[in-house]
Input
Amino acid sequence: MKTKFKFILLTCLAQMISLDLFPQKLPNKQTVSLWAPANLKIDGKTTEWNNHFQAYNRAVEIYYTLSNDDKNLYLTVQATNRAIINKIINGGISFSITPSAKKNQDAITITYPVFESYARPGLNTGKAFFEQSSTNIALADSIVTLNNRRLEEKSKLIMVTGIREIDTLISVYNDHNIKVAEKFDSKMAYTYELAVALANLGLSTNKAGKFNYHIVLNGESILPERAPVTSLKQVRLSPDMSDGLVAAKLGLEAQTTSPTDFWGEYTLAKN
Output
């Protein structure tokens, strides 16, 4: 009996380890409608999802989940590749909704984060940090804290197009029922969260709630230049990068600046 119990226990432990080491393969695009957790907060954390996502899109190299309740549509994105993280910081994520059946017709687009090219936060996302963070926890924690503080200080704008009642550039502290957040976690994964009222999108769970969506990683700032800036080849990604390398030297310029995107289709979940 004891031998059988030990065998069952060891089998369960092996399965648990296997799940941690070999996570379930995710689809390229989300395939299900999902009702958002009641405790969902737009805070740049994935606590409510246990850091699990509905899809991993290989075209843009991000994990993502779309969900909704009867008031809001939610988009949660996570990037773990440092070149992709830099791409998001450089030009933001543009999330477009097309309620009609045709792509790009009457599209509503929300872009965040939005920085003027000379005013992006100086973040430590250098290769040396990513390599050392697993062995130097104290260093990782301090850099993550500093990066998050700089994001909070600098990420003040959202770009909105396609909603007549809302200005093109609005504050993150707006009264239009559009909420955003971004944050690095202890493993240097970058998480982006967006909540937008269904009413802003012309959607409702009481109607046929099927729509096309378009996710673009812009790569470069989509704001017009307001001050002269040096080209990316001459600008450090972060003024305090410990390795002092620039994107061009790392061979990451194209990956960081070239837009990448994908289309998907989602049907609002009903509770």
Summary: Residues 24-267 form one domain. The chain is about 25% helix and 25% strand. Residues 216 and 231 are 22 Å apart (CA to CA). The chain has one domain: 24-267.
